[in-house]
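User:
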Amino acid sequence: MPQQTSERREKLRVLEALLFAASEPLDELTLAKYANTDGIADLLDELAALYATRGITLVRVAGRWAFRTAEDLSYLLERHAREERKLSKAAMETMAIIAYHQPVTRAEIEDIRGVATSGGTLDVLMETGWVRMRGRRRAPGRPITYGTTPAFLEHFSLDQIRDLPGLAELKGAGLLDSALPPEFTVPQPTDVAALMPDELPLEAVEQPELDLDETGPETPTDEETPPSNNLSE
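Assistant: Predicted structure:
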């Protein structure tokens, strides 16, 4: 740990006050601006080391910094925690699939789960702020693709989506059956903010193919109306 001068101690105090008062995690650019200091990364690492053995710790979540209750003491707060909404088993399964397989469509979620997924389940996850609509798959119908949000990382104290537990950790926590098939794997989760090559912007609409004969398109009569463009999820 760098030797602390009075100036450095004051900078640490300023950062400590900013992080303590903040209602949400703060990024390094914001902290450097308000603390009026360079070398912000080293200062944050030093502050995190100072709090490493205390009841609250300084952690990096979703690329930002925040004070959190020490993990080994979280049980003390469970009796006082107020549960905003208890997610159903279907919602939890859907959330896990989105986190590990994103970007993923509703049809792909259903294929992985083996059962139909209601639109209400996805609506609930988006209401929590943990899931977002990313874009549209380059496929017939232009189905919507889903991914996680920074709020998901913050809630689960993850710096990045790759910090999700792997196969060995899930087995160790008792979340997976130990007698899994040998070929069973857990995908390496990724969360790229930019659209993937097989994704289109949300505003993209599939253009219908017109079946024209030699005489050209027919003009619809009063009894006929052109088919509408149906967007499926």
